[in-house]
Write a structure and sequence with these properties.
Layout lengths: L5 H9 L16 E7 L10 E2 L2 E2 L2 H7 L4 E4 L2 E2 L6 H11 L9 H4 L8 H7 L3 E5 L9 H8 L3 E3 L11 E2 L2 E2 L1 H14 L4 E6 L24 H26 L6 E7 L9 H8 L5 H6 L5 E4 L14 E2 L3 H9 L22 E2 L5 E2 L3 E4 L2 E4 L5 E2 L1 H24 L5 E2 L4 E2 L9
Parallel strand pairs: 1-10, 1-11, 5-13, 6-7, 6-10
Antiparallel strand pairs: 2-3, 4-12, 8-9, 11-12, 14-15, 15-16, 16-17, 17-18, 19-20
Helix pairs in contact: 7-8
This protein binds (2R)-2,3-dihydroxypropyl phosphate (GP9) and manganese (II) ion (MN).
Family: Belongs to the LTA synthase family.
GO molecular function, one term: metal ion binding
Keywords: Cell membrane, Manganese, Membrane, Metal-binding, Transmembrane, Transmembrane helix
């Protein structure tokens, strides 16, 4: 019953902060386009591979005056991979430490980003050219409140337009713009790219740069598929402009999870030219994050704020000026001055302004060397507490006992007995 939610609610209220007022509502009434960059880690941004630029278009956005780019933004996914990153986006909760919450708790009550946009009069959709039941998406999206799921049957996969796991990103994003033209405005669309997925295969004509030369074919090919998706994003922006959608839209892009696992540490250490310690491994969990608001002048230089995927929901809601949602969430507006600058990864690792906890070791962020565990101790406790509260919510389906519009626990007598 709702008494189980009291401690959770107290914890969440204590960490709730005032969102950034200068960015509040800057994208109010605009379409929201969220592009999930499959397996894209931050180390490829503003970087080269054997003298070749890996992400020329995304790099240009890092200096664009209408774009905020974060280089200290972490994924918080576990075994549910892409679906975990979707769960976090919509709920500002962590996924589960084992299994995929999209499968194990698809029927819970959730108070989602999508729900809040529905209330604001948005037409909401998810777009992904794969079978609709993959990751249980068809069931979960309906529960999360998406008006429409554009899946494989909504796309025409022409000759040579599929590779690796399915439809290539360039035609996928192009056809998605065609669907957007038909949508009621304002709309929210979540687009999930696919080409940059393990094992990172490409057709010859889509290889815009060479392979890398390490002992890992996976890492060697990864640079090429990332480069391909960068091209797809560039063409997507052009298509949005041609369709007359661009000016009225805010575009948010973020990496869903790592593409290169620790099995490739030898190759990674060759590329990074340093040993991949647990500290470096944790830092490799950074994924790129972009907010692009045409004509806003919000950006221009890299923003080093410390943030994670749980922060997406409150941050997006503040940009769009959504007031109606007071749901239970662990994230904080990234751009608020009050932000805690504390990021917890799902496996218990964490990052503070000065420290990284990884491999049961406390690391000094500045030197990358192990330091006194005592320095990490208070944060270890807080990370464990936060993840435990999160799991109580999911395992107990506790959001049934919470009213997200008024931000309060439901009284005992108005809850429905099971
Ligand atoms: C499948 C795609 C990839 O539809 O989202 O999923 P992943 O393996 O990255 O979780
Ligand atoms: Mn993925």
């Amino acid at each position: 019953d709702s008494s189980e939610l009291v401690d959770v609610n107290n914890y969440v209220e204590a960490k709730s902060i005032e969102p950034a007022s200068d960015l509040h509502g800057i994208a109010e009434g605009k379409n929201l386009i969220v592009v999930k960059l499959e397996s894209t880690q931050n180390f490829v941004i503003n970087n080269e591979m054997n003298g070749e630029v890996i992400t020329p278009f995304l790099n240009s956005l890092t200096e664009d005056e209408d774009t905020i780019y974060l280089d200290n933004f972490y994924h918080q996914t576990e075994q549910g991979k892409t679906s975990d990153s979707e769960f976090i986006l919509d709920n500002s909760l962590y996924p589960l430490g084992r299994g995929a919450v999209f499968f194990t708790h698809s029927g819970n009550e959730y108070h989602t980003l999508t729900d809040s946009l529905n209330k604001e009069g948005y037409f909401t959709s998810a777009m992904h050219a794969n079978n609709k039941s993959f990751w249980n998406r068809d069931i979960v999206y309906e529960n999360f409140g998406y008006d429409r799921f554009y899946s494989l049957p909504d796309y025409t996969v022409g000759e040579g337009e599929a590779v690796n796991w399915g439809m290539k990103d360039i035609p996928f994003l192009q056809q998605s713009v065609e669907h957007m033209k038909e949508m009621e405005k304002p709309f929210y669309s979540k687009l999930i790219t696919l080409t940059n997925h393990h094992p990172f295969y490409l057709d010859e004509e889509d290889k815009f740069i060479d392979e890398y030369d390490s002992n890992s074919g996976t890492l060697n090919r990864y640079f090429q598929t990332v480069r391909y998706t960068d091209e797809a994003i560039k063409e997507f922006f052009t298509s949005l402009k041609e369709a007359g959608i661009y000016e009225d839209s805010v575009i948010v892009m973020y990496g869903d999870h790592y593409g290169i696992s620790e099995n490739h540490n030898v190759a990674m250490s060759q590329y990074m030219d340093k040993e991949i310690t647990p500290f470096e491994s944790a830092q490799l969990q950074r994924v790129p994050f972009f907010v692009h608001v045409p004509g806003s002048g919000i950006g221009g230089e890299t923003n080093h704020s410390l943030a994670g995927q749980v922060d997406l929901k409150p941050t997006i809601q503040n940009l769009l000026g959504v007031e109606s949602d007071k749901s239970i969430q662990f994230g904080q507006d990234i751009f608020s001055e009050e932000n805690d600058n504390f990021v917890i990864l799902r496996d218990g690792r964490f990052i503070t302004e000065d420290l990284v906890w990884a491999g049961e070791t406390c690391w000094d962020k500045e030197t990358g060397e192990a330091t006194d565990t005592e320095l990490c101790a208070p944060f270890i406790e807080r990370a464990n507490e936060e993840l435990a509260y999160n799991d109580e919510i999911i395992y107990g389906d506790l959001l049934r006992f919470y009213d997200p519009e008024n931000g309060r626990l439901l009284e005992e007598d108005v809850t429905i007995e099971e």
